[in-house]
Amino acid sequence: MFFRNLTLFRFSPAVAEDLNRLDEALAEHRLRPCGPLEMGTKGFVPPVGRGEEAALTHAVKACTLVTVGSEDKLLPAAVVNDELQRKVQKIAEEEGRKVGGRERKRIKEDLLTELLPRAFVRSSRLSTYVDKRHGWLVLDTSSRKSAENALTQIREALGSFPAVPLAPEEGPRVLMTDWLATGNLPGGLTLGDECELRDPATATGAIARCRRQELDSEEVKEHLRNGKQVFQLGLVFDDRMSFVLGEDLVVRKLKFLDVVMDEMGDSHQDAAAEMDASFALLTLELERLLGKLEEWFGLPRPADG
């Protein structure tokens, strides 16, 4: 269950206290199957196990894992429009008249009623956890839209959840550009093998993407001398995890290295024990990384008040 991407929000100590009722609050927002005439449903699903009796949270120390789920009907607009056109054409041929806008709308609504019960259903899951001790909300996605949707679901369940986006005191783009240009990285941090450089002067400026390449090469330095800045940078932290850090401070392509995976072992008795071990290891590793991100970029935790 190791996360592959990290989109981060922060919350205050007072908000952390309110999260003690998370398990109770989620119970009233459990994901239910799509009804015949519904386009989709959203809710929470058990991180471990299945069924109505399975818990909707999984906690290890101060961290609580939550899984946001959705079911969406797959009914492409092109399919509906093609069927609508056939019906409109049939009316024109059989009755010798044009179909007006109001009638087309009614026919389309009837089509949706007819087609929705037969549409395929796509399920999706997004894992997230709250670290109540340090005030982090961590979502396993690089999509801002998906993260905001999941955050909205948690807010609806709790009634209020004032988690806020990161507000760095140090400009990530400037700081990462300096790391790459000088090779002077914080302790424990080394360059990976990919980056994305852009000319920040214009929205349509040149973009240079490097993958599987030595980032201290002359070619990369030439881009920096020409005024490009770092928008994404591959990094390795303490030889335990690699990732690509964006100027939006979203962590992408997160990968735990062999030394971490070896600590997991493979002697777990059941799925619950395996989940417990992997979640504990995940949160322990990320606690160290997030603490360093807070230090490097100045990411203050919101204060109560």
Features:
globular, seven-stranded antiparallel β-sheet, 9 helices, alpha+beta, five-stranded antiparallel β-sheet, Recombination-associated protein RdgC, 305 residues
What can you see in these coordinates?
- The protein is of the alpha+beta class and 305 residues long.
- Strands 1, 2, 3, 4, 5, 6 and 7 form a 7-stranded antiparallel beta sheet that branches.
- It starts with 6 loop residues before the first strand and ends in an 8-residue tail after the last helix.
- It has 9 helices and 12 strands.
- The protein is globular and about 80 Å long.
- It folds into 3 domains: 7-72 and 122-165, no CATH class; 77-117; 172-297, no CATH class.
- The mean pLDDT is 91.
Give a brief description:
This is Recombination-associated protein RdgC. The protein has helices at residues 13-18, 22-26, 77-95, 101-115, 144-158, 172-182, 218-225, 258-264, 271-297; strands at 7-10, 40-45, 57-60, 63-74, 120-131, 136-139, 164-165, 189-198, 207-211, 229-237, 241-246, 251-256.
**Rg value:** 25 Å
Instruction: Profile the largest sheet.
Output: 7 strands, antiparallel
Name the poorly predicted regions.
none
Amino-to-carboxy terminus distance: 36 Å
- Structural class of the secondary structure composition? alpha+beta
| Shape category | globular
Q: What's the total count of β strands?
A: 12
Summarize the helix and strand pattern as letters.
Answer: EHHEEEHHEEHEHEEHEEEHH
- Average pLDDT across residues? 91
Note the total helix count.
Answer: 9
Q: Per DSSP, what share of the residues sits in E-state strands of 2 or more residues?
A: 25-35%
Fraction of residues in helix: 25-40%
As for the number of domains, it is 3
